[in-house]
Amino acid sequence: MLADALIRAPSPVVAFVPGLAIGALLLVVALVFDGRGLGAALFLAGATYIAAVGTAGAGTDASAPLVAVLLLLCGELTAWSLDERLEIQAEPALARRRGAAIATLGLSGLAVAALVVALSAVGPNHGLGWTVLGAAAAVAAAGTGIWVAHR
Protein backbone atom coordinates (compact mmCIF):
# COMPACT_ATOMS: atom_id res chain seq x y z
CA MET A 1 0.00 0.00 0.00
CA LEU A 2 2.79 2.39 0.86
CA ALA A 3 4.59 1.49 -2.35
CA ASP A 4 1.40 2.44 -4.20
CA ALA A 5 1.39 5.78 -2.37
CA LEU A 6 4.98 6.45 -3.37
CA ILE A 7 4.38 5.43 -6.98
CA ARG A 8 1.46 7.88 -7.19
CA ALA A 9 3.44 10.67 -5.57
CA PRO A 10 4.70 13.55 -7.69
CA SER A 11 8.41 13.91 -8.42
CA PRO A 12 9.63 14.69 -4.86
CA VAL A 13 9.06 11.09 -3.70
CA VAL A 14 11.85 11.56 -1.16
CA ALA A 15 9.48 13.59 1.01
CA PHE A 16 7.36 10.47 1.65
CA VAL A 17 10.22 8.08 2.45
CA PRO A 18 10.52 9.08 6.16
CA GLY A 19 6.84 8.32 6.77
CA LEU A 20 7.24 5.01 4.96
CA ALA A 21 10.37 4.06 6.90
CA ILE A 22 9.04 5.08 10.32
CA GLY A 23 5.70 3.34 9.69
CA ALA A 24 7.45 0.11 8.65
CA LEU A 25 9.76 0.33 11.65
CA LEU A 26 6.80 0.86 14.00
CA LEU A 27 5.05 -2.16 12.51
CA VAL A 28 8.13 -4.29 13.22
CA VAL A 29 8.28 -2.83 16.75
CA ALA A 30 4.61 -3.71 17.22
CA LEU A 31 5.25 -7.29 16.15
CA VAL A 32 8.28 -7.65 18.41
CA PHE A 33 7.02 -5.77 21.48
CA ASP A 34 3.42 -6.99 21.92
CA GLY A 35 1.61 -4.43 19.79
CA ARG A 36 3.30 -1.24 20.97
CA GLY A 37 3.31 1.24 18.12
CA LEU A 38 0.73 -0.55 15.97
CA GLY A 39 -1.68 2.38 16.01
CA ALA A 40 1.10 4.79 15.09
CA ALA A 41 2.27 2.49 12.28
CA LEU A 42 -1.22 2.32 10.79
CA PHE A 43 -1.65 6.07 11.22
CA LEU A 44 1.62 6.79 9.41
CA ALA A 45 0.67 4.40 6.60
CA GLY A 46 -2.66 6.16 6.15
CA ALA A 47 -1.13 9.62 6.48
CA THR A 48 1.56 8.79 3.91
CA TYR A 49 -1.10 7.58 1.49
CA ILE A 50 -3.24 10.69 2.03
CA ALA A 51 -0.23 12.98 1.61
CA ALA A 52 0.86 11.26 -1.60
CA VAL A 53 -2.61 11.33 -3.11
CA GLY A 54 -3.19 14.90 -1.93
CA THR A 55 0.01 16.21 -3.48
CA ALA A 56 -0.72 14.39 -6.73
CA GLY A 57 -3.88 16.52 -6.98
CA ALA A 58 -5.88 13.88 -8.81
CA GLY A 59 -9.04 14.32 -6.72
CA THR A 60 -10.90 11.13 -5.80
CA ASP A 61 -8.59 8.11 -5.79
CA ALA A 62 -10.24 4.91 -6.97
CA SER A 63 -7.83 2.75 -4.95
CA ALA A 64 -8.83 4.38 -1.62
CA PRO A 65 -11.24 1.54 -0.64
CA LEU A 66 -8.52 -1.03 -1.19
CA VAL A 67 -6.06 1.00 0.86
CA ALA A 68 -8.60 1.31 3.68
CA VAL A 69 -9.22 -2.44 3.71
CA LEU A 70 -5.50 -3.17 3.63
CA LEU A 71 -4.97 -0.94 6.66
CA LEU A 72 -7.84 -2.67 8.46
CA LEU A 73 -6.51 -6.13 7.60
CA CYS A 74 -2.99 -5.14 8.61
CA GLY A 75 -4.21 -4.16 12.07
CA GLU A 76 -6.47 -7.21 12.48
CA LEU A 77 -3.90 -9.72 11.30
CA THR A 78 -1.20 -8.14 13.46
CA ALA A 79 -3.50 -8.40 16.49
CA TRP A 80 -4.23 -12.03 15.61
CA SER A 81 -0.51 -12.71 15.29
CA LEU A 82 0.07 -11.22 18.73
CA ASP A 83 -2.78 -13.28 20.22
CA GLU A 84 -1.23 -16.47 18.86
CA ARG A 85 1.80 -15.92 21.10
CA LEU A 86 -0.25 -16.59 24.21
CA GLU A 87 0.31 -19.91 25.94
CA ILE A 88 -3.42 -20.65 25.83
CA GLN A 89 -4.16 -22.49 22.61
CA ALA A 90 -7.46 -21.70 20.92
CA GLU A 91 -9.59 -24.42 19.42
CA PRO A 92 -9.34 -24.80 15.64
CA ALA A 93 -13.03 -23.92 15.29
CA LEU A 94 -12.38 -20.59 17.00
CA ALA A 95 -9.52 -19.83 14.62
CA ARG A 96 -11.76 -20.62 11.63
CA ARG A 97 -14.51 -18.36 12.97
CA ARG A 98 -12.03 -15.56 13.61
CA GLY A 99 -10.64 -15.93 10.10
CA ALA A 100 -14.16 -15.87 8.65
CA ALA A 101 -15.02 -12.80 10.73
CA ILE A 102 -11.91 -10.95 9.53
CA ALA A 103 -12.62 -11.92 5.91
CA THR A 104 -16.25 -10.79 6.25
CA LEU A 105 -15.16 -7.53 7.87
CA GLY A 106 -12.65 -6.90 5.09
CA LEU A 107 -15.10 -7.64 2.28
CA SER A 108 -17.94 -5.63 3.81
CA GLY A 109 -15.56 -2.76 4.53
CA LEU A 110 -14.38 -2.87 0.92
CA ALA A 111 -17.96 -2.79 -0.35
CA VAL A 112 -18.99 0.15 1.84
CA ALA A 113 -15.77 2.08 1.13
CA ALA A 114 -16.14 1.50 -2.61
CA LEU A 115 -19.72 2.75 -2.46
CA VAL A 116 -18.69 5.87 -0.56
CA VAL A 117 -15.85 6.64 -3.00
CA ALA A 118 -18.06 5.97 -6.03
CA LEU A 119 -20.78 8.25 -4.72
CA SER A 120 -18.29 10.96 -3.79
CA ALA A 121 -17.18 11.05 -7.41
CA VAL A 122 -20.72 11.82 -8.59
CA GLY A 123 -21.34 15.51 -9.14
CA PRO A 124 -23.82 17.40 -6.98
CA ASN A 125 -26.31 18.00 -9.79
CA HIS A 126 -27.37 14.40 -10.37
CA GLY A 127 -30.65 14.44 -8.48
CA LEU A 128 -32.17 13.70 -5.14
CA GLY A 129 -31.83 9.92 -5.48
CA TRP A 130 -28.05 10.05 -5.71
CA THR A 131 -27.91 12.51 -2.82
CA VAL A 132 -29.99 10.21 -0.60
CA LEU A 133 -27.91 7.21 -1.64
CA GLY A 134 -24.71 9.11 -0.85
CA ALA A 135 -26.02 10.11 2.57
CA ALA A 136 -27.03 6.50 3.26
CA ALA A 137 -23.57 5.30 2.24
CA ALA A 138 -21.91 7.82 4.54
CA VAL A 139 -24.14 6.73 7.43
CA ALA A 140 -23.41 3.07 6.65
CA ALA A 141 -19.67 3.77 6.62
CA ALA A 142 -19.82 5.57 9.95
CA GLY A 143 -22.08 2.89 11.41
CA THR A 144 -19.72 0.14 10.29
CA GLY A 145 -16.81 1.93 11.94
CA ILE A 146 -18.75 2.31 15.18
CA TRP A 147 -19.90 -1.31 15.06
CA VAL A 148 -16.32 -2.53 14.54
CA ALA A 149 -15.05 -0.33 17.39
CA HIS A 150 -17.57 -1.84 19.81
CA ARG A 151 -16.77 -5.45 18.92
Task: Give the helix/strand layout.
Blueprint: H1 2-8, H2 17-32, H3 38-56, H4 64-83, H5 92-120, H6 128-150
Helix pairs in contact: 1-3, 2-3, 3-4, 4-5, 5-6
Descriptive account of the structure:
The structure is a single chain. By secondary structure, the chain is mainly α. The longest helix is centred in the C-terminal third of the chain and has 29 residues, at 92-120. It has one domain. It contains six helices and no strands.
Number of helices: 6
Query: Rough shape?
Result: flat
**Secondary-structure element pattern, one letter each:** HHHHHH
* Percentage of residues in strands: under 5%
Instruction: State the helicity in percent bands.
Output: over 70%
| Nearest-integer average pLDDT | 78
Q: What Rg is obtained from the alpha carbons, in whole angstroms?
A: 18 Å
Main beta sheet: none
* Structural class category: mainly alpha
Unreliable spans are none
Count of beta strands: 0
Number of discrete domains: 1
Distance between the termini: 26 Å
Characteristic terms for this protein:
151 residues, 75% helix, flat
